[in-house]
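Minutes, project check-in
Item: structure for the 156-residue chain
Input as provided by the requester:
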Amino acid sequence: MSPAALHRDAVLQCTFSKDGKALASVSADKTGRLYKIRPGAGEFVPGTEIKELEGHKAAVNAVQFSPEGSLLVTGSNDYTIRVWERNQGKCVSKINCGGPVRQLCFAPFDGNRTTPVHLACISANRIEIWNIDEQEQKFQQEFPEEIQLTVSKISL
């Protein structure tokens, strides 16, 4: 059986870590999964634990690794973003948003954590930017509902 088959409902998004050693997936089953991958081979590492990321109360729509790879974020229809520590698969913080979280995008940072980590999200019909270290919203802009929003890169 494929490790991805361990979700109990539709997989809604997946992403590789920048170093190619991990794959994360999220699902309508309210969970995320974190898998170890052989870099360059595109294969699951046999016999390794698949970390289940539990805590959301509704479908999980979005997942992203932080640019330096130590964190993973998930966004859900439960109006929250959860920040996970990659190595342990442990939720280290939760951010409450203004609506269902549909998409996430990290701002680049210097990797040695001398600057705050910022994350953009599309939540309902708005774009929000958060400092995830302090769980502080830095920016919010609402748009008419008929406008389709997509975030692919942010610069601060």
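Outcome recorded: The chain has a mean pLDDT of 83.
No further action items on this chain.
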